[in-house]
Design goal:
Layout: H1 6-18, H2 23-30, H3 34-41, H4 49-58, E1 88-94, E2 100-106, H5 107-113, H6 131-151, H7 157-177, H8 180-203, H9 207-223, H10 228-243, H11 247-256, H12 264-280, H13 284-299, H14 318-330, H15 332-335, H16 356-360
Antiparallel strand pairs: 1-2
Helix pairs in contact: 6-7, 6-8, 7-8, 8-9, 9-10, 10-11, 10-12, 11-12, 12-13, 12-14, 13-14
């Protein structure tokens, strides 16, 4: 069981203050309560590895906070903990009426419950897989991912989530038995699956599950040597705060995701999100400056052409769609401002300020972008 750490708490507090964040602001970013963060900073409560990873990312600690935690011990003999992705078992139940239920549980809970009361996917009996087999699974999973994303344009999330979750788990488990080069590719693709699950969870209105899956995506990508997805996770979190109508935090998160070390695509998506935050606050000029930054970045094709696309893949002009969104949020003054294509916002309702219900409507603004 994790023990309270004064050293971790002091470092967390110092980094938070250096970043100019209050406990309330950090709480909103990592989705842990202010009270829990306060107890961790004071050394009263032990930080979980999940909280440590979130804080490390939010405060751009570069692994400094995670390094202060004790090395995780494997709860099941003979099972290694690798890159933070093997600390839990995934349990999924499917009922005849098509309803699905998913729950991550710690390995300690699995051992306590016993095999007779809980059946989980286990990898104990499997051995190494050949490069050809792992490569074939990788190619098939990439093709499936493309089809899933296309189906996501017209099918309700509940029909897709069980298959996506199962596929994510398969890639995660297969990576343990693959050679090192294929392992990285399997984990990278698994991270894209997990990110898409998070997106669909958010479209379903479950922000907590969306953030859980986004963090799993970051963990998988990090284990595969891809640090870029941690930056994109900031863009995803900024979408949650946008739905919560927190313009300031949306802009702050989006700006942090525009680090020059990240790919042009992630920076372009972050600039779009920043524009949406400015529009929510009624800042016309700042909104359009962000949109102007986004367009050339999203036109840049430097990202790996063989990897699944991060973010929207079906929009011919995502900046145009986001411009329409922003004009709607800016209200009549924005629509009368400098020239966006009048057709851009054709599908958006007219009137004053936006409503949360519009953004939550299945497919209204999200599905069209995936």
């Amino acid at each position: 069981m994790p023990q309270p750490s004064t050293e971790f708490g002091e470092e967390l507090r110092q980094r938070r203050l250096d970043a100019g964040l209050s406990l309330t602001a950090l709480s909103a970013v990592v989705h842990y309560s202010k009270s829990q963060l306060s107890k961790v900073e004071r050394g009263i409560k032990a930080p979980s590895r999940d909280l440590a990873r979130l804080c490390d990312t939010a405060l751009q600690a570069g692994g400094g906070l995670i390094a202060l935690l004790p090395a995780p011990a494997a709860d099941v003999p003979g099972t290694a903990v690798t890159g933070g992705i093997d600390e839990e078992e995934w349990v999924m139940q499917l009922s005849p009426d098509g309803q699905g239920w998913f729950q991550p549980v710690s390995r300690r809970q699995v051992v306590s419950a016993g095999a007779a009361s809980m059946m989980t996917w286990r990898k104990g009996g499997q051995g190494p897989v050949s490069p050809a087999t792992a490569g074939g699974m990788l190619a098939a999973s990439r093709s499936l991912f493309t089809h899933y994303r296309r189906l996501g344009q017209s099918v309700e999330p509940g029909f897709l989530l069980p298959g996506l979750i199962a596929q994510t788990h398969t890639l995660r488990e297969l990576s343990v038995h693959a050679d090192s080069s294929t392992r990285r590719s399997l984990l990278g693709l698994g991270s894209r699956y997990a990110e898409y699950v998070g997106w669909l969870m958010q479209e379903s209105g479950d922000d907590q599950a969306a953030m859980w899956w986004t963090q799993r995506a970051v963990d998988l990508a990090d284990a595969g040597g891809d640090r870029a997805l941690a930056g994109y996770a900031l863009v995803r979190r900024a979408l949650v705060t946008l739905y919560q109508e927190d313009a300031a935090l949306t802009v702050a998160l989006a700006r942090r995701a525009q680090d020059s070390a990240l790919s042009p695509r992630i920076r372009g998506l972050a600039a779009q999100r920043e524009a949406q935050g400015h529009a929510l606050a009624g800042r016309y000029d700042a909104c359009f400056r962000a949109l102007e930054r986004a367009r050339p970045l999203l036109a840049d094709q430097e990202d790996d052409a063989g990897a699944p696309v991060i973010g929207s893949m079906h929009l011919p002009d995502s900046v145009g769609m986001v411009t329409g969104w922003c004009l709607f949020d800016l209200g009549p003054a924005g629509r009368g401002g400098r020239g966006a294509d009048p057709a851009v916002g054709a599908g958006l309702p007219r009137g004053g300020a936006h409503t949360g219900a519009l953004r939550r409507a299945p497919g209204a603004c999200l599905r069209v972008g995936r």
